[in-house]
Amino acid sequence: GAGVSQSPSNKVTEKGKDVELRCDPISGHTALYWYRQRLGQGLEFLIYFQGNSAPDKSGLPSDRFSAERTGESVSTLTIQRTQQEDSAVYLCASSPWGQGTRQPQHFGDGTRLSIL
Amino acid sequence: KQEVTQIPAALSVPEGENLVLNCSFTDSAIYNLQWFRQDPGKGLTSLLLIQSSQREQTSGRLNASLDKSSGRSTLYIAASQPGDSATYLCAVRGAPGAGSYQLTFGKGTKLSVIP
């Protein structure tokens, strides 16, 4: 498949545990985004990676959230000491750079995270 | 802060009808606007992307318009089919500057097309 791949598709964990979510962008896409979609809410921007530039972390809701990306490949989003309000679908998107922000973002199917 | 509103929140129509979904945004300084479709349990599928300099984009039975000055976009679906049933999301990207790569999303319109 040539699309954005996210794993796991579903994750259920106990409050207080750490979780790690993975995103494989489309090959050749230099820009990678993480969003969160809570029930009944619109998508919220979390973090943005562009090539080797410093990521924009301005959307991360707390210091329990962090993300990494190696070069232009896989990204992981880590949530430490999970809370029930972290329950949401976490969506990853990628886009080519090319003409910069003129490119559409392509989304994965998301990871549905449930905190018990 | 940009805010995106989609009306109606839900819409049910009989098969074959033409329909219009509405999106409004508060800050007209946008770079582009994108319409997505989201099926239950799935990610977002990009339908149409309209750059700020454009007025409309068409793809098959879909037509999206953009009136940047008034902060509005519409998604027109012709001859609706049951397979069009999904949630439709509108998202805007801010003008060049801080955060311009971020998309600000509306909460979506849930469309049901009844056979």
Describe this structure in words.
The complex is a heterodimer of chains A (116) and B (115). Chain A contains no helices and ten strands. With 116 residues, chain A is mainly beta. Chain A is globular. The model of chain A has no long low-confidence stretch (mean pLDDT 90). Helices cover 0% and strands 58% of the residues of chain B. Chain B has strands at residues 4-7, 10-14, 19-25, 30-38, 44-51, 56-59, 62-67, 72-77, 86-94, 103-105, 109-114. In chain B, strand 4 and strand 5 form a beta hairpin.
Q: Which secondary structure elements does this structure contain, and how are they paired or packed?
A:
The complex is a heterodimer of chains A (116) and B (115).
Chain A: E1 5-7, E2 10-13, E3 19-24, E4 31-37, E5 43-50, E6 65-69, E7 75-79, E8 88-95, E9 106-107, E10 111-115
Parallel strand pairs in A: 2-10
Antiparallel strand pairs in A: 1-3, 3-7, 4-5, 4-8, 6-7, 8-9, 8-10
Chain B: E1 4-7, E2 10-14, E3 19-25, E4 30-38, E5 44-51, E6 56-59, E7 62-67, E8 72-77, E9 86-94, E10 103-105, E11 109-114
